[in-house]
């Protein structure tokens, strides 16, 4: 429904219909992607690039990915179904068989962006990854940290990661409709977008994706269910989307690789 | 006290409709001018009612109706309308009280109103506590273990509740009333200063706004952070509303009537609309100059970004131009529900926040898809209208049976609340 309203708005504007047509295209699905995971292509692409990931893969070097996250990075008691593990599996499937992909996870539970960023220098000395996926914002939103401070902290963290020689992808909050009336996400989403823009870093919009799935009825994110099934499916989709996002931003798609 | 009774007589310092002929000789006039008693600017009621509906819809999870709210088409949203009109009506009512009964009596009246708003806020907080406690005990989806951290404050109810009473702990969606309380507390000072020199007061207000941005002033909140609506910045809209009510609007009427103003406003609104569109259709953002984006973002709601304020000014300039106060449509039964809601703003505002909580709750318990969403939004609006009608009816009956001594000036409901 929303898409329709938007579309008519755009048509009203006139002349702008072309980009909207692109929005309607579903993401090209290479591997058998579960129908539930489908997303519009704009959520899976980024203008910013990942040159170091591209370089490592082209040179045949191992791809070391570090996910810095929080409790929503994992599913309690089923690590192997969480999105970092799913992303690793999909990347291995899609990249050339000779490519070694290794994903490690660093959990910074209950830490704000500022507190997490403080650990980055040491962390990067120990791990030296090619790509860091930094998922943050939830703890700051829960504690309603000053959005300006939050923006500063994220920017600082991104710079520290880049200085340590890694490509960076920022990942924002989960869409959590049940707590929407208690946690105010928008300021943190906006500020992460600003930092991503300023530092030319791809932003993986987890919030918009989950919202899309919920709105389209693929997942019922309101569900109070205690079982891990829903969480597993959502993480599977996020892992797939993330793998595709990384491949896209590093220009490692099948077309590019032939050159 | 029906609407029809009140539209008679119209010398109000109308926001724009005032023609040059209305301008009274201001030789011996006091610094501020007040319109005659008993009239009612229906446009204010209309737009405040609209703001209340939009705030209600914006507080619900996004659904079809959300696309009709103005925040999707520009920078400013219903909050700006609400605060501006609140400033306007408050100055209108209590400004008269101050001229007629003096500073002390007017201040006492204002404090009584502040108390009402405070009680309303505490009432809403209680409902919020009930909702969040329910969620904490019933919702255990492993996907959201992290988000459940928001419940941590339930572990220290003693501190949380006291902080809430001090207005320092404010859950999401409960920021408007504390802002309004602080603004109303400042109202005696604002009116006193307006009585002396309205333009200087407005300039001082703008100065405070600038200082807030320059020195990063804010109200701290509990457990950390700051007020989501910074009163030190938002006072500018409130004071501007008061200034308009006390004769400023009439003095501005020539500017408002000029075609230059109109075209600047239109150009700005179109530009703002395009920028907003890029948020929803990210493909469009490639046509946005990067330098402009870096300068513009983030558009700060907490401190009432200048872009938001000017967007509101542009919107209101066009509104007063194309919607004259004598517009017959204002009396049409179709707009009656909006006007009724706008006339009882404090009650309807609180009801709206409560209904938004209730709507969240129903949506969470009965997963119903977009149809259910739309149904909840619509029935919420119908309930708001129904309650506004009942309040009006009750006031009318009470006024008839009560002593006739009570005149329109003492009517808190004209003072607007919320």
Report on this model:
The complex is a heterodimer of chains A (259) and B (418). Chain A has helices spanning 2-13, 17-24, 51-58, 83-94, 113-117, 120-127, 138-142, 147-163, 186-198, 206-216, 229-249, 254-258, and strands spanning 63-69, 101-107, 131-135, 167-171, 203-204. In chain A, strands 2-1-3-4-5 form a 5-stranded parallel beta sheet, with helices on both faces. Chain A is built from 12 helices and 5 strands. Chain A has 259 residues and is an alpha/beta fold. Chain A starts with a helix and ends with a helix. The longest helix of chain A is centred in the last third of the chain and has 21 residues, at 229-249. In chain A, helix 4 (83-94) links the parallel strand 1 and strand 2. With 418 residues, chain B is an all-alpha fold. In chain B, helix 3 (78-101) packs across helix 8, helix 13 crosses helix 15 (369-401) and helix 14 (345-365) runs antiparallel to helix 15 (369-401).
Give the number of domains of chain A: 1
CATH top-level class of chain A: Alpha Beta
Shape of chain A: globular
Instruction: Give start-end ranges of low-pLDDT stretches of chain A.
Output: 1-31
Order of helices and strands of chain A: HHHEHEHHEHHEHEHHH
Question: Cα-atom Rg of chain A, whole angstroms?
Answer: 18 Å
Largest sheet of chain B: none
Give the overall silhouette of chain B. Answer: globular
Q: What is the number of strand segments of chain B?
A: 0
Major β-sheet annotation of chain A: 5 strands, parallel
CATH topology of chain A: Rossmann fold
Give me the secondary-structure category of chain B: mainly alpha
The oligomerization state is heterodimer
Order of helices and strands of chain B: HHHHHHHHHHHHHHHH
How much helix, percentage-wise, in residues of chain A? 40-55%
């Amino acid at each position: 429904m929303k898409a329709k309203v938007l579309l008519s708005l755009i048509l009203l504007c006139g002349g702008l219909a072309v980009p909207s047509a692109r929005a309607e295209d579903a993401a090209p699905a290479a591997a058998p992607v579960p129908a539930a995971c489908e997303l519009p292509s704009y959520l899976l692409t980024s203008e910013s690039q990942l040159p170091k990931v591209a370089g490592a893969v082209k040179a045949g070097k191992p791809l070391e990915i570090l996910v810095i996250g929080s409790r929503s990075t994992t599913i309690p008691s089923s690590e192997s179904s969480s999105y970092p593990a799913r992303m690793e599996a999909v990347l291995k499937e899609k990249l050339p068989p000779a490519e070694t992909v290794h994903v490690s996870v660093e959990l910074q539970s209950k830490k704000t962006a500022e507190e997490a960023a403080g650990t980055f220098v040491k962390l990067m000395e120990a791990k030296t990854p090619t790509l860091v996926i930094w998922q943050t914002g939830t703890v700051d939103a829960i504690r309603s940290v000053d959005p300006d401070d939050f923006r500063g902290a994220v920017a600082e963290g991104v710079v520290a990661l880049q200085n340590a020689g890694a490509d960076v992808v920022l990942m924002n909050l989960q869409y959590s409709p049940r707590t929407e009336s208690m946690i105010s996400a928008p300021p943190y989403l906006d500020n992460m977008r600003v930092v991503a823009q300023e530092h030319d870093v791809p932003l993986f919009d987890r919030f918009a994706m989950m919202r899309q799935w919920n709105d389209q009825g693929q997942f019922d994110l309101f569900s109070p269910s205690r079982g891990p099934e829903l969480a597993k499916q959502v993480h599977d989709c996020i892992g797939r989307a993330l793998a595709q996002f990384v491949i896209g931003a590093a220009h490692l798609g099948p077309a590019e690789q032939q050159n | 006290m029906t609407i029809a009774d009140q539209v008679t007589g119209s010398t109000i310092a109308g926001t724009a409709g005032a023609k040059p002929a209305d301008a009274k000789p201001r030789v011996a006039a006091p610094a501020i001018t007040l319109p005659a008693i008993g009239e009612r600017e229906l446009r204010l009621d209309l737009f405040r009612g609209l703001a209340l509906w939009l705030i209600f819809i914006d507080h619900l999870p996004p659904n079809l109706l959300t696309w009709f709210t103005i925040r999707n088409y520009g920078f400013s949203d219903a909050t700006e309308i609400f605060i501006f009109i609140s400033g306007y009506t408050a100055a209108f009512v209590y400004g008269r009280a101050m001229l007629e009964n003096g500073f002390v009596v007017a201040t006492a009246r204002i404090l009584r109103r502040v108390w009402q708003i405070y009680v309303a806020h505490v009432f809403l907080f209680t409902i919020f506590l009930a909702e969040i406690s329910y969620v904490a005990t019933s919702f255990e989806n492993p996907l959201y273990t992290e988000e459940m951290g928001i419940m941590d404050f339930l572990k220290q109810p003693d501190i949380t509740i006291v902080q809430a009473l001090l207005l320092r702990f404010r859950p999401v969606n409960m920021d408007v009333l504390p802002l309004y309380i602080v603004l109303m507390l400042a109202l005696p000072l604002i009116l006193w200063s307006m009585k002396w020199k309205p333009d200087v007061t407005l300039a001082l207000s703008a100065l405070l706004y600038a200082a807030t941005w320059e020195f990063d002033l804010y109200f701290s909140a509990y457990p950390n952070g700051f007020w989501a609506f910074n009163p030190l910045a938002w006072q500018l809209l409130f004071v501007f509303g008061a200034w308009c009510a006390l004769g400023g609007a009439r003095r501005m009427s020539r500017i408002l009537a000029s075609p230059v103003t109109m075209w600047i406003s239109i150009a700005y609104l179109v530009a703002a609309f395009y920028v907003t569109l890029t948020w929803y259709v990210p493909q469009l953002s490639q046509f946005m100059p990067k330098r402009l984006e870096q300068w513009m973002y983030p558009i700060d709601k907490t401190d009432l970004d200048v872009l938001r304020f000017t967007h509101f000014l542009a919107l209101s300039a066009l509104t007063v131009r194309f919607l004259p106060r004598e517009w017959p449509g204002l009396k049409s039964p179709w707009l009656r529900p909006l006007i009724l809601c706008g006339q009882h703003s404090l009650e309807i505002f609180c009801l709206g926040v409560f209904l938004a909580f209730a709507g969240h709750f129903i949506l969470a318990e009965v997963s119903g898809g977009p149809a259910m969403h739309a149904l909840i939004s619509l029935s919420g609006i119908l309930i708001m209208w129904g309650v506004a009608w009942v309040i009006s009816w009750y006031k009318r009956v009470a006024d008839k049976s009560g002593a006739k001594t009570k005149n329109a000036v003492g009517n808190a409901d004209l003072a607007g609340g919320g």
